[in-house]
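hi! just following up on the protien thing from before. the input was this:
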Amino acid sequence: MLSTVWVIPQLKNIPSPYESSVTAFLSFIFHPPALHAQEETPIQLHGIVVSNDSLKQLLPNVQILVKSRGQVSISDIDGFFSTVAMPGDTVFFQHIGFKLQKFWVADTLEGDEFLARIVLEWDTEVLDPVIVYPWPSKGKFQRRILSHGSADH
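and the predicted 3d structure came back as:
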């Protein structure tokens, strides 16, 4: 049976500015970090999304983003959701008319699922009033209306 033997050159002849980068490169190739990383178990995160008012309305169609993986899902018509996240992930909940809510998945959870109640706060930003005319100016609008004559035609 043939086996592969890796020969790593000595770094004595390499100029010193490059020595550390070559060493780092070789150690990455022969000892990838993924082999040393501890295997994390995904967490099934599910629950409901409600408003923060006195009615505690269930919120449908809330956008749910697991930031580290770029995974997007939405809550169903009754405000229920279910998504997969890893311990330490940040999950964002967003809905029109509500402020963005962040949820951090704890890395100390025991088990493989977590039930959450996410409360979204109303975003009550008041905009300045706007008057919309179908013509560029109020004067042109008046001239156009007056030029039509009476409405009895």
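The first strand starts at residue 43 and ends at 51.
The chain has three helices and seven strands.
cheers
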